[in-house]
What we know:
Layout: E1 18-19, H1 26-30, H2 33-41, E2 45-48, E3 53-56, H3 59-67, E4 71-72, H4 81-84, H5 94-101, H6 111-123, H7 125-128, H8 132-146, E5 151-153, H9 154-159, H10 161-171, H11 178-189, H12 198-224, H13 230-236, H14 246-278, H15 282-285, H16 289-302, E6 308-313, E7 317-319, E8 322-324, E9 329-333, H17 334-337, H18 372-389, E10 394-395, E11 400-401, E12 410-412, E13 414-416
Parallel strand pairs: 1-2, 3-9
Antiparallel strand pairs: 2-3, 4-6, 5-13, 6-9, 7-8, 10-13, 11-12
Helix pairs in contact: 5-12, 5-14, 8-18, 10-11, 10-14, 11-12, 11-14, 12-14, 14-16, 14-18, 16-18
Bound molecules: protoporphyrin IX containing FE.
Amino acid sequence: MAAILQIKPITDVPADRRASANPRDPEFFQNPYAFYDRLHATDPAFFWDEYGHWCFAGFKDVSALLRDKRFGRDILHVATREEIGLPAPQPHTAAFDLTEKYSLLNLEPPAHTRLRMLVNRAFVSRHVEQLRPRIRTLANEIIDGFEGEGSVDLIKAFAAPIPAIVIAEMIGLPAEMAPQLLNWSNRMVQMYMFGVTREVELDANQASADFMDYLRTVIAERRRQPREDLLTHMLTAEPGGDRLSDDEVMSTAILLLNAGHEATVHTTGNGVKSILESGIDPATLFASEEQTQATAEECLRFDAPLHMFTRYALTDLEYEGIRLRKGDVIGLMLGAANRDPKRFADANRFDPFRTDGANVSFGAGIHFCIGAPLARIELQVAFAELFRRLPRLRIAEPPRYGDVYHFHGLEKLVVEWR
Ligand code: HEM
């Protein structure tokens, strides 16, 4: 998930293909959909001035480009740093860089294929489906803890702990560690923001170093005493006879912990907000298993938690008349694609009864979210249990999104139910 920046400036773009929106402007990140509406009405393939690279907001383009093998999340397997003008690695972010080095999200085939095959088995639907009862119990225990209060910040009290505890337990780390894991993870993901400062880099690096120290101790314990958990599985699995190194296991565990909760927290918050603001009777949204699934899918489509992912052009190429050089960056706008009126009828309406719901919130192609089956179960259970237990739930304060365009999630969601 490293922050990818366009290195060599692109200058030859006609004025009518350019668009401007400041990702740090509160008016923009509180409601990026007004900008997306303008793009869909004019040109959804445009050069975003502030980012300095081409971006794609149309569903068809985003979906096709995520699958297009001429683009990759990494470039250093086909080019040197000098060739594309990437700066040398910085000593003060060495620990952070090490956590990223073997991250699935930064690899391309064949390295990506090998690592993904190994981890994938743990995340297939039939395997994670077994976690549903545990997730239901957890959601209810958490609600038991705050039900008497009558009002709560739902992000902190409910949305955040569920995915953090689930992924920690799955990897084989104690649930009590969840707050510490959240702390490390939150500090590390600051690195993916627009305009990172040196202070943020130093703090993210410290969090990475502490996270790795902790994991090294747990890995040593598992080597002495194997358990039935994902960490042990990763340490002992031998795909085609080769083993994962400790650094590979650490990178993967950190990626799973980071990717495994952040987006799910935001989707839970955004989804509860969408449901409450729609005015639809929640009882109808969770009346059956199928409707619960459809409601969760519409929450994912309508207010996606991750709005832009980038890719490098791996060669000089042309896409729909746009010429790209090897190393150029493109932005794929998932949140905008999900609101494309060419793909979805009445795209700006929250409609959990729609049948044209398949969205790109989990991406597509080789990097398609490995945790999607797990995230879907977490969301279905969290929404259904919350509205079953607190049917009078309503918003108590106007919710505000955090100052981060890429991660589109609420800072707070204060609700009440008496
Ligand atoms: C609502 C929740 C989630 C959303 C919206 C989401 C979204 C995404 C997206 C869009 C990608 C692809 C990024 C790209 O193509 O550049 C991705 C990849 C990934 N996600 Fe998720 N994710 C969620 C939950 C999870 C969970 C629960 C886990 C793990 C337990 C997870 C683990 C991963 C991993 C490991 C990758 C990298 C896969 C690869 O590169 O092969 N995600 N996710």
